[in-house]
Amino acid sequence: DQDAREAFRKSLMLNPGFVPTLEAYGKYALHERGDARVAECLFKELVAKNSSHPGALHSLGVALQMQGEHAEALTAWKKGVSVNPTDVACLVSYGGLQQSARRDLGGAELLYKSALALEPTHPVACSNYGVLLEELRGDYDAAEKLYRSALSSAPSDPVPLNHLAMLLQDARGDSQQAEELYRKALSYAPSYAPTLSNMAGFQYSVRGDADYAEKLYRRALSVDPADVGTLINYGSLLEEHRKDGYSAQKLFDAAMTIDPYTAKRYLEQQQGDQYQEGRSPRIVKEED
User: For position 274, what pLDDT does the model report?
Assistant: First the structure.
């Protein structure tokens, strides 16, 4: 790790601003070290030298989003789409952030359609657009078609597997197939937090197995401690089943600190008896 960083630094000292090194070091910082701040600096320098460099603006947006700079991430992806309208990664990420923040659902739909015109089975585009169709229009048939389209090209992708399982559970009432898909998703990606969380909700609400559900929620939070849906759902289990209001409130407070908009929406749904146990935030990111 230290050797890799020193190699990148020496390379930039010998040839400052060398685009291939900026790109490689930026991706290393972003994906291997999770150092979004360093990645941001490197990709900003790369974009300043060549704004049309493939993937540069998308990677910059990812680094900004990891730091909670959502407005700046939107700006980077919007510019990426304007520079290169066929940049599927920017189209999907731009749409995803528009959708998750409820800024412009119509605009998000157009972005997904543009991405899918270029890559009809793109897993993240299919998954996010399917969620939009479910939540905005209640069009479960179209959503299911999108999830299955994604799985036709990526059968082991946990994202569409997870979404299809939720749809079958909630809209089709097919608990057996839903559970099979949750288990299939976890067999491919045992540490994928959304599936762990949703499987926990399934076990609690459908199977009545609170102990197993709690175990799955804890696993999900060990992977992603900032998953708002998991925090709210686990808190609800503790409050409703364990009668542990103190621990539940700590989880609710943590969720409100991380993402007040999403947490408030979950809690309002819960109080209005519309809450569905086991639902983690469904919009997923397009990885670089």
Answer: 39
Q: Closest Cα to residue 234, out of 189, 280, 176?
A: 280
CA angle 222–128–266, rounded 5-degree value = 55
The CATH number given to 192-283 is 1.25.40.10
Query: Where are the alpha helices (H) located in the chain, listed in sequence order?
Result: 2-14, 19-27, 36-49, 56-66, 70-83, 88-100, 105-118, 123-132, 140-153, 158-170, 175-188, 193-205, 210-223, 228-240, 245-258, 260-271
CATH fold for the domain made of 1-84: 1.25.40
The structure's pTM equals: 0.83
pLDDT tens profile 29-57: 998 888 999 999 999 999 999 988 889 99
Q: Residue ranges per domain, the chain?
A: 1-84, 192-283
